[in-house]
Design goal:
Elements (H helix, E strand, L loop, with lengths): L9 H10 L4 E7 L3 H18 L5 E7 L6 H7 L16 E7 L6 H14 L4 E4 L9 H14 L3 E7 L6 H15 L1 E2 L8 E4 H8 L13 H11 L4 E8 L12 H17 L1 H4 L6 E2 L2 E2 L14 H20 L4 H11 L10 H17 L4 H6 L2 H15 L4 H17 L1 H8 L5 H4 L2
Parallel strand pairs: 1-2, 1-4, 2-3, 5-8, 6-9, 8-10
Antiparallel strand pairs: 4-7, 5-7
């Protein structure tokens, strides 16, 4: 095996030799998810049995060393075939349950799934989160069918979420990746994806498994790598995303750091791609889009504003190293503004994110310091968004987010000028 592959455990290798080949693979990365993973396993089994009864399938649980019996739940969980109105299954449905090796994190779990998919020559694969409470058997068809029948290589999830769930996606990752790569993939870090066996093998050729990609950065890395390398992408509407929710005002700094670090690193790798893109286009969406009920999320608005104000005051010297004077003036003015007068315009936010990307690119200081210092400003933008949309319904919020994305697209010239300002004129206009 090359250095870029993981050494699968002996029992996994034996299971692969026993199975030989499959048509479909569904992976579930896990870490202490005993309370929720049984439901996910049943939904996967039901989806494979109901929608792909003639195909050889395998469910792979790649576990991060759970101590709550997660792997036992996966091994013991099964479904009653009569409950899904099916008399028999022609193909075989296997299970592989294994701890993963490497850096603790979701990316290392995915790496093991990619390895097993490649070894078993799977045609179509999917991964789903272990803490999902809203997954249904239909998700499995929606994530796999576009690959099997339509020739797509990558299926991103598209679901309705509470307006204050997924704030890192909504305020940074979706607007930034849409503006950079020109594809309106609504949930680039959604957690549940479909991908071809060919793309799984391609992922394994990349030497990223000791970086932030191995932790929280894997989702955005998968999406960006597929788009930037010309793989055929689409999205599938999965209904509601109901999982263990997180208050956007709580400490998401670890996740923010790893996700944004991955996005910025990918900008350096794929500069030759995004520098030629202007505007954006929709991607095909499969599934019937319908309105869903969502669980409310508590938001600590005053806590976010307090962290923003404190961050601006304590980190102003650091910000001055790479934020232009007009942006510093704005931040200092807003740090003194009352809750009623607080605002964070979209074009200003886009310029701030682009300035952080340029500072990261030029290594003006430690990349870790740059990205960690983004947290209070992110909380300020989220607070502004909450204030603006407190009375807004889901459609109005989505329109508001589209306006934010358009601002990122319109400000892309600002990024281009600053990113390339120290290189030759020919390259800047390439």
């Amino acid at each position: 095996m090359s250095e870029k592959t993981v050494l699968l455990r002996k029992e996994v290798q034996e299971k692969i030799e026993e199975i030989k080949e499959v048509d479909l693979l569904v992976g579930i990365p896990s870490y202490n998810n005993a309370k929720t993973i049984g439901h996910v396993v049943r939904a996967v089994q039901a989806g494979l049995t109901k929608y792909f009864p003639d195909m050889r399938s395998v469910l792979v649980n790649s576990d991060g060393g759970s101590t709550d019996g997660t792997m036992d739940v996966v091994k013991e969980t099964s479904i009653d075939l009569t409950s899904i109105l099916l008399q028999h299954r022609v193909g075989n449905l296997y299970k592989i349950v294994t701890p993963y090796e490497g850096v603790p994190g979701k990316g290392s779990a995915f790496r093991t799934i990619f390895e097993i998919a490649t070894a078993l020559k799977a045609k179509a694969c999917a991964v789903v989160d272990a803490d999902l409470r809203s997954i249904t058997p239909e998700w499995i068809e929606l994530l796999l069918r576009p690959i099997l029948d339509r020739g797509y290589h990558y299926v991103a999830p598209y679901y309705h979420r509470h307006k204050y769930d997924g704030t890192i996606t909504n305020t940074i990752v979706y607007p930034l990746t849409r503006a950079l790569y020109g594809k309106r993939i609504r949930q680039p870090i959604g957690g549940d994806f479909g991908f071809s066996g060919e793309l799984a093998a391609f992922y394994l050729t990349k030497d990223v498994w000791n970086t932030d990609v191995a932790r929280f950065g894997i989702d955005i890395w998968m999406t960006t790598t597929a788009v930037a390398n010309g793989f055929k992408v689409c999205q599938a509407f999965l209904g509601a995303k109901i999982h263990d929710p997180k208050d956007p005002g709580t400490d998401l700094s670890g996740m923010l750091h790893q996700v944004v670090s991955s996005v910025f690193s990918l900008m350096e790798e794929y500069e030759h791609v995004w520098s030629k893109v202007r505007g954006s286009e929709a991607v095909p969406t499969f599934g019937f889009v319908y309105t869903v009920g969502l669980e409310p999320i508590k938001v600590n608005l005053d806590g976010m504003l307090q962290k923003f104000r404190l961050g601006v005051k304590e980190l102003s010297q650091l910000y001055e190293a790479f934020l232009p004077g007009e942006l510093m003036w704005f931040l200092e003015a807003e740090a003194d503004a009352s809750r009623e007068d607080f605002r964070f315009p979209d074009d200003v936010w886009a310029e701030i994110i682009y300035s952080f990307a340029v500072a990261f690119h030029r290594r003006l200081m430690s990349p870790e310091h740059i990205i960690k210092s983004l947290t209070p400003l992110y909380l300020g933008k989220v607070a502004s968004f909450v204030i603006e949309t407190w009375e807004s319904n889901a459609d109005e919020v989505e329109k508001r987010l589209d306006d934010l994305c358009v601002a990122f697209e319109n400000e892309k010239e600002y990024l281009m000028e600053r990113w390339f300002e120290e290189v030759g004129e020919e390259r800047r206009v390439a």
